[in-house]
């Protein structure tokens, strides 16, 4: 059972989900997998409206549609996935917002696109699983870039502890400031959240300590740390999780 947003669940005619390690694509979205837009995420701010199945989008870190039956998703492994739906279920969007995208203004870009013929106040937003402030240690210079680049956000929100960034809190502040009043946060850290059966199952039944905890999400950071210790450890290539949604046809 993958994570979901109560706010989006309450919208009739929209199905969504946040994938995890056990279901990179949430089971509930698989019937539409072939319709996914084909895009290359580059930690930028370009958001592409789509209207055709499997549309070629080039480089894009966000997608937006009003077409029923088109699955939108973003792939993440520590970056922040954001899902959006209009309350009437007629229009949806998805953004890939890591630290680069947040700093560069992908949320403001999306709000600006909507504001041309719509109002963010008509929408709900959901913040998915991402590197949490519990684990997301970064350089002092990156923290400084955030504090200087986003002076409108209180420092205690940007960096709740020394050299930590709180991507979800930054996103929530920006969403509210950009006119989205209704924001859910799944609240899962991709680096440390354990899956439901973590450590509880000892298949051999011999009482031996399990090999290690079972993590719920693919994490670029955790994988990098493992590979630093053991260079033969497999990369996360092809194992990023989808956060996606579709307007039911
Ligand atoms: Zn954590």
From TrEMBL:
UniProt keywords, alphabetically:
Metal-binding, Transferase, Zinc
* GO MF entry, a single one: copper ion binding
Source domain of life is: Bacteria
On whether Zinc is a keyword of this UniProt record, the answer is: yes
In terms of InterPro entries, this protein maps to: Cu_polyphenol_OxRdtase, Cu_polyphenol_OxRdtase_sf, Cytotoxic_necrot_fac-like_cat
Q: Which reaction does it catalyse?
A: S-methyl-5'-thioadenosine + phosphate = 5-(methylsulfanyl)-alpha-D-ribose 1-phosphate + adenine; inosine + phosphate = alpha-D-ribose 1-phosphate + hypoxanthine; adenosine + phosphate = alpha-D-ribose 1-phosphate + adenine; adenosine + H2O + H(+) = inosine + NH4(+)
Residues crossing the lipid bilayer are none
Concerning PANTHER family, the annotation shows: PURINE NUCLEOSIDE PHOSPHORYLASE, UNCHARACTERIZED PROTEIN YFIH
Q: Which family does it belong to?
A: Belongs to the purine nucleoside phosphorylase YfiH/LACC1 family.
Q: What is this protein called?
A: Polyphenol oxidoreductase
**What does UniProt list as this organism's lineage?**
Bacteria, Pseudomonadati, Pseudomonadota, Gammaproteobacteria, Enterobacterales
């Amino acid at each position: 059972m993958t994570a979901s947003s109560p706010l989006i669940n309450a919208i009739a005619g929209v199905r969504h989900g946040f994938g995890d390690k056990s279901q990179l694509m949430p089971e509930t979205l698989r019937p539409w997998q072939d319709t996914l837009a084909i895009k290359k995420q580059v930690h930028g701010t370009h958001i592409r409206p789509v209207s055709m199945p499997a549309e070629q989008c080039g480089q894009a870190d966000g997608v937006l549609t009003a077409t029923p039956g088109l699955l939108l998703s973003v792939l993440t492994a520590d970056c922040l996935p954001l899902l959006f739906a209009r309350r009437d279920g007629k229009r949806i969007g998805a953004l890939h917002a890591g630290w680069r995208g947040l700093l560069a203004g992908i949320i403001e870009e999306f709000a600006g696109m909507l504001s041309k013929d719509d109002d963010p106040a008509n929408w709900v937003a959901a913040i998915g699983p991402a590197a949490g402030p519990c684990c997301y240690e970064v350089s002092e210079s990156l923290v400084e870039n955030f504090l200087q680049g986003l002076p409108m956000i209180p420092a205690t929100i940007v960096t709740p502890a020394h050299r930590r960034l709180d991507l979800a809190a930054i996103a929530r502040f920006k969403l509210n400031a950009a006119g989205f009043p209704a924001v859910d946060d799944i609240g899962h850290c991709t680096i440390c959240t354990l899956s439901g059966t973590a450590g509880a199952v000892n298949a051999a039944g011999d009482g031996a300590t399990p090999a290690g905890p079972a993590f719920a999400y693919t994490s670029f950071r955790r994988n990098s740390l493992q590979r630093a210790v053991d260079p033969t450890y497999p990369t996360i290539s092809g194992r990023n999780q989808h956060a996606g949604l579709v307007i039911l046809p």
